[in-house]
Every structure is written in C-alpha cells, then in structure tokens.
C-alpha cells in the first residue's frame, strides 16, 4: 500500500510523512495497549506500528504521547492491571510446574529405591534412644553442677561476712593496742621523771596525751 519503487525495480518500504487518519490512530492505540498487557515496552510497540504503517518509531511515539494517550487513560490502567494479573498467573504457573516436577522426581526416586527397609527404621530409632539417654545424663550432670555453684555462692557469702567481722575485730584490737602502748609510754616517762629534781620541773600534757617536762 505504502511502497515505492527504487532503482532496479525492487520495492522497498518508504517512510510516510502524511497526516494520520483515525484507522492508523486505532492501530497505534491497540498495539500500545497490547504491549502494556503483555509486559513489553511502549518503544517496542512504536517499532512494530512503524513497520506496519511505514512510519518512523519517533513519529509513532510523538503521535501517541501528544494526542492519542489522553483518550486512553482508562484503557491504559486496565492494561496495566491485566499485566499484573498475567505476571501473577505466570508466577503461579511456574511454582505449580516446579512442584509437579519435584513430586515427579520424588515419586521416581521412591520407585527406584523402593520403600525404606524396616531394619533401617529400627536402627534409627535405637540411635535416637541412645542419644536421648546421653542427653538425660548431660541434663542431670548440668543440674548437679548448677546446684554446687549455688552452694559455693552461698558459702562464699558467709565467708565474706565472717572475714568482715574479723577485720572489724582486728581494727578494734589494733586501736586498743595503740592506746595501751601510749599509756605504757606515759607511765615510763613518769617513772624517769621521778628520779630528777622535781622542784624546778613541772609537767604538761600535750594534745596527744604525752607528758612533757617544763622547767619553772
């Protein structure tokens, strides 16, 4: 329809630059909506329409964005919703196919290996029973150790209190000892002073309780 003859008589598509008509607008709109529904891009739609109508993709894109798109806003939203539903269905189909393949593979494997032998089941149950006994022993030992730790904490607290009392008694004895040494020292000085000439000497007690000779 929109073909032209080149040199040599070979027909090639020529790029149209004439005005758009309503039929072409309808083709453009339907093509864009289909690409939106199928998850494709508008650029791909413009390329396909360009080949069909012998126009450039740029001209198709300009026509769509500047004029036609405004009249198909509702249809665009419906196409986008259909695209989402299509993607959901594709995901559901993929999951369903994977499940079927796994079930088929599992079934084939079971058919190939037959049923599990009863002796294997018994051996496995015995192993579980043995492991359970070992676990019970570990739990009992853990409970015993926990109890010992609590008893040690209690004994440690009692020993700390006893040590505190001993320290307090030690401080009291040490203070009493210092006081006794002080008294003995004063007594010794008084004995020394008695052998001297007391007529010219008097005594004075300082702030620490020591006696000092003071000449008259």
Automatic annotation (TrEMBL):
Looking at the record, the residues that make up the Myb-like domain are 12-68
Membrane-spanning parts: none
Record flagged with keyword Repeat: no
Q: Which residue spans adopt a coiled-coil conformation according to this UniProt entry?
A: 128-176
Which keywords label this protein? Answer: Coiled coil
What is the recorded name of this protein?
RsfA family transcriptional regulator
């Amino acid at each position: 329809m929109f073909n032209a003859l080149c040199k040599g008589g070979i027909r090639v598509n020529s790029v149209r630059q004439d005005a758009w008509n309503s039929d072409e607008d309808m083709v453009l709109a339907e093509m864009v909506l289909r690409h939106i529904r199928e998850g494709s891009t508008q650029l791909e739609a413009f390329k396909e329409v360009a080949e069909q109508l012998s126009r450039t993709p740029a001209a198709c894109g300009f026509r769509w964005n500047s004029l036609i798109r405004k009249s198909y806003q509702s249809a665009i939203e419906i196409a986008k919703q259909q695209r989402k539903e299509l993607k959901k269905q594709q995901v559901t189909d993929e999951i369903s196919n994977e499940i079927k393949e796994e079930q088929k593979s599992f079934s084939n494997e079971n058919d190939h290996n037959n049923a599990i032998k009863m002796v294997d089941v018994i051996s496995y149950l015995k192993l579980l029973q043995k492991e359970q006994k070992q676990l019970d022993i570990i739990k009992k030992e853990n409970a015993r150790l926990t109890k010992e730790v609590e008893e040690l904490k209690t004994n440690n607290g009692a020993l700390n209190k006893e040590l505190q009392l001993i320290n307090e008694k030690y401080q009291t004895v040490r203070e009493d000892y210092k006081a006794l040494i002080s008294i003995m020292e004063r007594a010794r000085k008084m004995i020394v002073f008695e052998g001297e000439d007391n007529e010219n000497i008097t005594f004075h007690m300082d702030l620490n309780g020591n006696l000092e000779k003071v000449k008259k």
